[in-house]
């Protein structure tokens, strides 16, 4: 009986140590990134970054995304609802973390669509049609072109523009920033420089609302 008690106690102690270590690590990461936000704000928002919402909003939600990421597609309407529920208070900034196979080409298509002022329309169509061209069981990226056409873009111009040196520089900068911020999966969220350390819809909402309460006191 005493042996069983010792085993249980040891297990609980290890579990407690793990929780404490995790909390300390997350706190250190948050403090480190908060420092980066103050000292090097550009690492979160670059001049080339696509933005949506009020440019003067006091809450900046930075999302490192991948157009082929299923979770990014799932979060897209949730983020838009957060913005709709808090009009004028949130600015969304997109950064690229193209981790999936071929994702850099999808980013190039998006940026080329931006040349035709169709960036957000194209991204919305990409996400909504993702299951047809980016299924992990049967990925068929070539099918994406059929859906991109629905955004009302000139496809031939996109095929030409997507090879611009400008877009390659954007990709290289965003990938370098993602590494510096330790973004290893998508979507990676930061709210006013604070990372979403525990991932989930509810957790993101809580982090956003805490920053809104802080910067828009009643």
Give the helices and strands, then pairings.
Blueprint: H1 2-39, E1 51-53, E2 59-65, H2 70-85, E3 90-96, H3 103-114, H4 119-133, H5 144-148, H6 155-161, H7 165-180, E4 188-191, E5 194-195, H8 201-215
Parallel strand pairs: 2-3
Antiparallel strand pairs: 1-3, 2-4, 4-5
Word description of this protein:
The protein is 57% helix and 11% strand. The chain contains eight helices and five strands, in the order αββαβαααααββα. It has a five-stranded mixed β-sheet with strand order 1-3-2-4-5. The radius of gyration is 20 Å and the shape is globular.
| Number of DSSP-assigned strands | 5
Average pLDDT value? 88
Q: How far apart lie the N and C ends?
A: 58 Å
Per DSSP, the total helix count is: 8
What percentage of the residues does DSSP assign to strands (E)? 5-15%
* Biggest sheet, spatial arrangement of strands: 1-3-2-4-5
Profile the largest sheet.
Answer: 5 strands, mixed
- Please bin the fraction of helical residues: 55-70%
User: What gross morphology would you assign?
Assistant: globular
Using only C-alpha atoms, the radius of gyration works out to 20 Å
Structural class: alpha+beta
Give the assembly state of these chains: single chain
Ranges where pLDDT stays below 50 over 5 or more residues in a row are none
Return the string of H and E elements.
Answer: HEEHEHHHHHEEH
């Amino acid at each position: 009986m005493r042996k069983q008690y010792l085993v249980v106690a040891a297990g609980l102690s290890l579990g407690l140590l793990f929780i404490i270590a995790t909390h300390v690590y997350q706190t250190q990461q948050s403090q480190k990134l908060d420092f980066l936000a103050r000292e090097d704000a550009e690492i979160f928002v670059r001049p080339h970054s696509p933005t949506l919402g009020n440019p003067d909003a006091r809450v900046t939600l930075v999302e490192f995304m991948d157009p082929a990421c299923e979770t990014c597609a799932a979060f897209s309407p949730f983020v838009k609802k957060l913005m709709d529920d808090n009009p004028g208070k949130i600015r969304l900034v997109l950064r690229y973390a193209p981790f999936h196979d071929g994702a850099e080409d999808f980013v190039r298509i998006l940026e080329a669509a931006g040349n035709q002022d169709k960036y957000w329309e194209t991204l919305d169509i990409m996400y909504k049609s993702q299951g047809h061209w980016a299924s992990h069981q049967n990925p068929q990226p070539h099918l994406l072109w059929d859906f991109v056409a629905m955004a009302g873009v000139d496809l031939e111009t996109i095929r030409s523009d997507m090879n611009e040196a400008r877009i390659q520089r954007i990709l290289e900068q965003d990938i370098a920033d993602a590494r510096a911020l330790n973004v290893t999966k998508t979507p990676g969220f930061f709210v006013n420089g604070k990372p979403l350390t525990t991932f989930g819809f509810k957790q993101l909402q809580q982090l956003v609302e805490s920053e809104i309460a802080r910067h828009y006191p009643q």
